[in-house]
Prior knowledge:
By secondary structure, this protein is an alpha/beta fold. 36% of the residues lie in helices and 17% in strands. It contains 6 helices and 7 strands; from the N terminus they run ααβββαβαβαββα. It has a 7-stranded mixed sheet, with helices on one face.
Amino acid sequence: MEELLTKEPIVKPYFSTQIKIYLGTLLLLFTANTYANDSQKKLTPAPEFTHSKASEWINGKLLKLADLKGKVVLLDIWSYGCWNCYRSFPWANDLEKRLEDEDFVIIGVHASEFDSERDSNNVVAKAKQFKLHQPIMIDNDFSYWNALGNQYWPTFYLIDKQGKLRAKYLGETHKGDKQALKIEGGIQYLLNEETLAKK
């Protein structure tokens, strides 16, 4: 599944976070032609969102993948009973703010870990508590979870501008950590992929 990020960027630990992001992005851009020209790899379309009632979406209208064409999408699969999910929210909120002028969006998918989390009013309250402004699909029946073949909370998926799944990342993520740098490098690559392919 990790189409883009099979090699980790080599980054010295004493570099600042900004330099780490810059170097990681440069490394990914340097290897971009390898990925762009690899005709052996078949990209999988992201599954269509499985919930089509307004009551199953919060922080905005219900969405279809076609609504997101032309945007790089970070899917955040989470549950409000998951501490690792909570600890990843500050990074995701910061990322959303930093990329607000780009063709980028975060879509949350709340898949309840416990029965007590199935009440959408509680999900709304937690979204407010953690300042989550992105659209969130409530996946109480695990239909989207299963369509992705997901297994863990949190899991992050990158979807490219054509709606193809490009990468998958597991676990808690913090600003400036190794996983954040990989995800952010992947996002930057996908934002610039069309330009890179023309070179």
